[in-house]
C-alpha cells in the first residue's frame, strides 16, 4: 500500500476525512458525513453517526437523543458532561464518536490501521483564552481516544490554502475565506508551486482571523424571524383581566433545535396548556404544543435549511411545513433573509477588514480569493465577497472537501 497522509476536518455541520499519496499529493480517498449523533432510547449503549443518525432518528419516531453542532460544545468550559442513556458523556467523547466513525471509513478503504492524522481547527474557537485552550485540549483528546496515536493540528483556512496551492502555476497572494456551520475564518497567505512541499510555511502566512458566525446561526435567525410567529411568538393570553404575552424564553430555546427537546420536560411546557386555553385556543399555540410534544424541531430545521439553500438561486421561495395538526406556511424573500443576517454579515466583514488592516494590506493587493465551506453559497455571503473583490479574483472550492484535502497535503509537508 502506498504511504499516505491523513487529514480530518471535524466540522460543526459536516466532517470529512481525506487520504493523500505522500509521494504525489494525489487524493486517494475522501469521505464526508454529517456531524450528527443519535442515541436511541435503549438499555444498550448504541449510537449512530451522520446519515445513519438521521435515518434512525426518524425511524425511531424522533425519540432518544439527537445531537448536532458537537464542535461548538468543545469550547464551553462550564459544560462538563451530559447524561445519555444513563451514562455521563463528556464533550470530547461526543466528538470522539464522530472522529472515530470517519477513521473507520478510511481504514476500511485502506485495509490497515491509520495512526497519524492532521486535524483541522478553526482560526478561532473563542475570544476567551480559557475557552480557546479548553476547545483545543478537548479536540486533541477526542482524536487520541478515537485511536490516532500522532495528532497534528492545522488551521482550517490554511489547509484550504494548501488545497488551492496544489493547482497553482505561479506565485499568488491569496485570501482564503472558509465559511462553515459554526465559524467564518480568513487567512492571507503567499502561495507558490515551488513551496508546495516545503515543511515550514510559517513565513508564508501573512495573517489569519475568524469570527464565531456560520450557517447554524443563519438557520436560527430564520427560525426566529419567519417561523416562531407561526408558533405563537407575540401571542397573548388572558390572566386576571390582563393580556400577557407568551414568554419569549420559549422561542429563544426553539432557535436551537438541539436544545428544544428540553422544553418537553421543562416547567415552561407545563404552562403551554394554560397559554393555549386562555388565549382562546389560539391555533398558533397549538402548533407550538405539537412541535414540542412530537419532537418535530429537527424536521422543521431541515426545512429551514432547504429554504436557505433555495434562496441562493431565487428571489422568493415558499416555506411549508406540515405534520399532523402542525401547519406552517409562508414565503421568504431574499430581501427578508438578507435583513435577518445583516448584523452577522457586518461582523464577518469587520473581521475580514480588521485582518487586512493588521496585515497593512488593501483588498487590491490580493491576487485570488479562495472560497470554501458549506455556508459559502449563502447569498448574503456571496454578496459580501463580490462587492469586496472583482469577480475574476474569486475562486470557489469544494464546499466540503477542500479543507480535509488540504489537511492531508499539509501532512506531506510536516
Explain what this protein looks like in three dimensions.
With 414 residues, the protein is of the alpha+beta class. The protein folds into two domains: 4-171 and 398-413, Nucleotidyltransferase, domain 5; 216-337. The protein is built from 13 helices and 19 strands. It has helices at residues 51-59, 91-110, 129-145, 156-165, 215-227, 248-254, 257-260, 267-278, 283-293, 297-310, 334-358, 379-388, 402-413, and strands at 4-9, 14-21, 27-34, 36-39, 48-49, 65-68, 82-84, 87-89, 116-121, 150-155, 172-179, 184-191, 205-211, 236-239, 242-245, 316-323, 326-333, 368-372, 394-396. It has a five-stranded mixed beta sheet, with helices on both faces. Strands 13-12-11-18-19 form a five-stranded mixed beta sheet, sandwiched between helices. It has a three-stranded antiparallel beta sheet with strand order 5-4-6, sandwiched between helices. Strand 14 and strand 15 form a beta hairpin. Helix 4 crosses helix 13 (402-413). The longest helix has 25 residues, at 334-358. It is globular and about 75 Å long.
Amino acid at each position: 500500500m502506498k504511504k499516505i497522509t491523513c487529514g480530518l476536518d471535524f466540522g460543526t455541520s459536516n466532517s470529512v476525512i481525506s487520504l493523500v499519496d505522500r509521494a504525489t499529493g494525489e487524493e486517494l480517498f475522501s469521505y464526508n458525513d454529517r456531524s450528527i449523533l443519535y442515541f436511541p432510547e435503549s438499555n444498550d449503549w448504541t449510537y449512530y453517526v451522520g446519515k445513519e443518525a438521521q435515518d434512525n432518528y426518524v425511524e425511531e419516531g424522533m425519540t432518544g437523543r439527537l445531537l448536532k453542532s458537537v464542535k461548538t460544545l468543545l469550547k464551553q468550559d462550564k459544560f462538563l458532561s451530559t447524561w445519555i442513556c444513563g451514562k455521563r458523556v463528556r464533550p470530547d467523547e461526543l466528538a470522539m464518536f464522530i472522529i472515530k466513525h470517519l477513521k473507520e471509513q478510511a481504514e476500511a478503504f485502506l485495509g490497515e490501521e491509520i495512526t497519524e492524522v492532521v486535524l483541522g481547527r478553526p482560526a478561532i474557537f473563542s475570544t476567551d483564552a480559557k475557552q480557546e485552550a479548553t476547545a483545543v485540549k478537548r479536540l486533541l483528546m477526542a482524536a487520541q481516544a478515537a485511536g490516532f496515536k500522532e495528532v497534528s493540528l492545522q488551521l482550517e483556512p490554511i489547509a484550504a490554502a494548501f488545497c488551492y496551492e496544489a493547482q497553482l502555476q505561479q506565485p499568488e497572494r491569496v485570501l482564503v475565506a472558509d465559511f462553515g456551520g459554526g465559524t467564518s475564518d480568513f487567512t492571507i497567505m503567499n502561495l507558490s508551486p515551488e513551496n508546495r512541499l516545503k515543511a515550514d510555511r510559517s513565513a508564508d502566512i501573512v495573517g489569519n482571523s475568524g469570527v464565531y458566525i456560520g450557517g447554524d446561526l443563519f438557520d436560527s435567525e430564520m427560525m426566529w424571524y419567519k417561523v416562531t410567529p407561526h408558533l405563537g411568538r407575540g401571542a397573548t393570553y388572558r390572566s386576571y383581566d390582563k393580556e400577557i404575552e407568551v414568554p419569549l424564553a420559549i422561542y429563544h430555546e426553539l432557535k436551537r433545535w438541539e436544545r428544544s427537546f428540553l422544553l418537553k420536560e421543562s416547567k415552561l411546557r407545563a404552562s403551554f396548556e394554560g397559554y393555549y386555553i386562555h388565549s382562546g385556543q389560539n391555533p398558533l399555540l397549538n402548533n407550538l404544543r405539537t412541535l414540542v410534544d412530537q419532537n418535530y424541531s429537527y424536521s422543521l430545521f431541515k426545512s429551514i435549511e432547504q429554504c436557505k439553500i433555495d434562496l441562493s438561486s431565487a428571489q422568493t421561495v415558499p416555506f411549508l411545513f406540515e405534520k399532523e395538526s402542525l401547519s406552517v406556511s409562508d414565503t421568504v424573500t431574499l430581501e427578508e433573509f438578507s435583513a435577518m443576517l445583516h448584523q452577522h454579515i457586518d461582523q464577518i466583514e469587520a473581521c475580514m477588514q480588521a485582518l487586512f488592516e493588521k496585515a497593512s494590506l488593501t483588498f487590491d493587493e490580493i491576487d485570488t480569493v479562495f472560497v470554501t465551506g458549506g455556508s459559502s453559497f449563502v447569498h448574503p455571503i456571496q454578496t459580501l465577497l463580490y462587492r469586496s473583490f472583482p469577480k475574476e479574483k474569486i475562486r470557489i472550492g469544494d464546499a466540503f472537501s477542500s479543507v480535509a484535502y488540504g489537511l492531508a497535503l499539509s501532512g506531506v509537508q510536516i
